[in-house]
Design a protein that fits this description.
Blueprint: H1 13-23, H2 26-33, H3 37-51, E1 56-59, E2 62-65, H4 67-87, E3 100-104, H5 107-124, E4 129-133, H6 139-145, E5 150-153, E6 164-172, E7 174-179, H7 191-195, E8 198-202, H8 211-218, E9 224-229, H9 235-240, E10 245-249, H10 250-257, E11 262-266, E12 276-283, H11 290-302
Parallel strand pairs: 3-4, 3-5, 8-9, 8-10
Antiparallel strand pairs: 1-2, 5-12, 6-12, 7-10, 7-11
Helix pairs in contact: 1-2, 1-3, 1-4, 2-3
Length: about 300
């Protein structure tokens, strides 16, 4: 078999070759290809040189395939079909999909936003699998490394913003959570009363002060932090059994306070902030992935 340098071969000629071999007619092939007959004739000559074979041979009834062309045609049809499928946009059929969707978020973010999505998956994509990670991590590190498809968070990336896309899925104000038996649960929660208490902090990264501490520092105040947690779920347990106060997104606080001896109070007006945005993030590598596009569409409809 002679060696062939593909860089020296005009692969566009293979489309012309297929039409010539299927029609066995130069004029008919030119019509189907929307090319002039002389252009197709020139292409045929180049193909003959490339394959070192006549490909089409004259007979009394017109053109017929050479022995080499008979062998080439079925392989060429498979090849062009494969190339078309390679270039065509892939389609996603949720009913038959067996993909694994990997999501990262903290426990309460997952409970609030992923659980409703899972119900949709069970109904519309029963063979798909959802893998959820909730351990304290950098949300964007997992997206960067490709370990997850999506990340749920109210945080924003500190670097590499151009790598990520996001979808706003919820907004929430903040509230102060405490035991219903805490004396501060009665009456207005002024800044003075708030500062007199001991506090808990949910820190996703485990580092640095919270936003409330930054706000207090701007006003020249400091609160007593008695407890730091890495997840929301256990905050209610500590509130219910101690005198601690937690400032949390309202959507999260209401979820974990259900059925508990917990009171939710408006934060002091001095600590009010703009609504907290919760985003669904994904990396640019998955932006056009058919499965991920379908998930995002369903998230929009569900949430």
């Amino acid at each position: 078999m002679r060696e062939v340098n593909l860089r020296s071969v005009d692969l566009n000629l293979l489309v012309v070759l297929q039409q010539l071999l299927e029609t066995r007619h130069v004029t008919r092939a030119s019509e189907l290809l929307n090319m002039s007959q002389p252009a197709v004739s020139r292409a045929l000559q180049r193909l003959r040189e490339t394959f070192d074979d006549p490909l089409l041979v004259r007979t009394a009834q017109g053109y017929d395939l050479s022995a080499r062309a008979i062998e080439i045609l079925p392989r060429l049809q498979v090849l062009t079909s494969s190339v078309e499928q390679l270039i065509a946009e892939p389609k996603f059929n949720p009913a038959k999909a067996v993909d694994v969707v990997r999501v990262y978020g903290l426990d309460l973010e997952v409970a609030c936003f992923v659980a409703p999505l899972f119900k949709v998956l069970r109904n519309e994509a029963p063979q798909m699998r959802l893998e959820v990670r909730t351990e304290p991590r950098n949300h964007f590190e997992l997206l960067e490394t490709g370990e997850v498809h999506f990340s749920l968070t109210g945080m924003e990336p500190e670097t590499g913003e151009g790598q990520y896309r996001r979808l706003l899925i919820a907004q929430s104000g903040i509230v102060c959570m405490m035991s219903a038996d805490n004396p501060l649960a009665m009456g207005d929660l002024t800044l003075e009363r708030y500062l007199s208490a001991s506090h808990g902090l949910v820190s996703m990264t485990g580092k640095g002060p919270g936003h409330v501490d930054d706000r207090l520092a701007e006003m020249g105040h400091k609160r007593h932090l008695a407890l730091r947690l890495s997840n929301f779920m256990t905050a209610a347990d500590f509130c219910e059994t101690s005198d601690l106060l937690f400032v949390l997104p309202e959507i999260v606080a209401r979820r974990i306070a259900l059925g508990r001896n917990i009171a939710l109070k408006p934060v002091p007006v001095e600590l009010l902030v703009s609504p907290i945005n919760f985003f669904l993030y994904w990396h640019e590598r998955y932006h056009r992935d058919p499965m991920c596009r379908w998930i995002r569409q369903r998230v929009l409809q569900v949430l």
